[in-house]
Specification:
This protein is α/β, with parallel strands linked by helices. The chain has one domain (5-85). The chain contains three helices and four strands, in the order ββααββα.
């Protein structure tokens, strides 16, 4: 894994505002995923910033459910993010 670019793409069930010190989890998503970063550092991988889509809860009555427009925008952002990292061929 040495010097290989590694990253995480994450679907979070709740909105980004819930991932902060005063939110539901009292931590950012980056803080929650810190063990993955530590492992990548241990194997000398080139760990990159995560990509996250928030509000991806699929429960019918979930109040902050992501919209189709937000999903489409996230898909576009994901491709652009992968291009910026040089991870798409």
């Amino acid at each position: 894994m040495k010097n290989k670019k590694v990253t995480l793409a994450v679907s979070a069930g709740i909105k980004k505002a819930d991932y902060c010190q005063t939110g539901k989890y009292q931590s950012t998503l980056e803080e929650i995923l810190k063990p993955f970063e530590l492992i990548m550092n241990y194997v000398h991988a080139d760990y990159q910033q995560i990509f996250a889509i928030y509000g991806a809860n699929n429960e019918p009555d979930y109040p902050d459910k992501i919209t189709l427009n937000e999903i489409n925008k996230s898909a576009e952002d994901y491709v652009n993010w992968m291009n910026r990292l040089g991870m798409l061929i």
